[in-house]
Amino acid sequence: MPVEILPTIPDDALQVGSRIHPATKQKQWRSDQILSTLLNQLPEDSYCMVAITMTDLYPGDSWNFVFGQASLRSRVGIFSFARYHPAFHSEPTTPETPNLILRRAAKVLVHETGHLFGIRHCIYHECNLNGANHLQEMDASPFHLCPVCLRKIHHATRFDPLTRYSALKTFYQKHKLTHELAWTNQRVLKISNAK
Ligand SMILES: [Zn+2]
Ligand SMILES: [Zn+2]
Q1: Which tens digits make up the pLDDT trace of 127-155?
Q2: Which one is catalytic: 112, 126, 137, 180?
Q3: Is 44 one of the annotated active-site residues of the chain?
Q4: What is the pTM of this model?
Q5: Which domains does the chain possess?
């Protein structure tokens, strides 16, 4: 589906609640209030709208934090990549860090966009739509969708599998995601041989 990147909203233009987290001493935005703001701006012709931020999030005073928040029905979501950066956990930044952040960020956006298409957590196979409760679980989950979830996305968007895999190959190649590239090459071979 065509994706439109909207202009960045500066911090001081955002009229929602925030706090400094007592333990991390980092700023957090109120994710639920950002969702309400997005709902007001959701264009009628768009399937969904996703906001991303490098600031940590919390959905209410009794909460510690959330990685993100999305609504299965109202087609809006907000996600923070703050906790995907090693620096957040006082771990060193290495030459691998940009690739790690990209992998985590892209994986979570695929996962959450899946929810915005009404798909629930996958219990069938190793799949991008498996539920993940912490970073290690998320790192272990694959980029790709299992056959069940792929079929659900296909039902919603009616893509051509080969065209989709070719586009993914270009993305994986460009960003040196070698494991994902090898996996996708296998799929392309299987589909091509089946024709
Ligand atoms: Zn999920
Ligand atoms: Zn699945």
Answers
A1: 999 998 888 888 899 999 999 999 999 99
A2: 112
A3: no
A4: 0.87
A5: 11-158 (3.40.390.10)
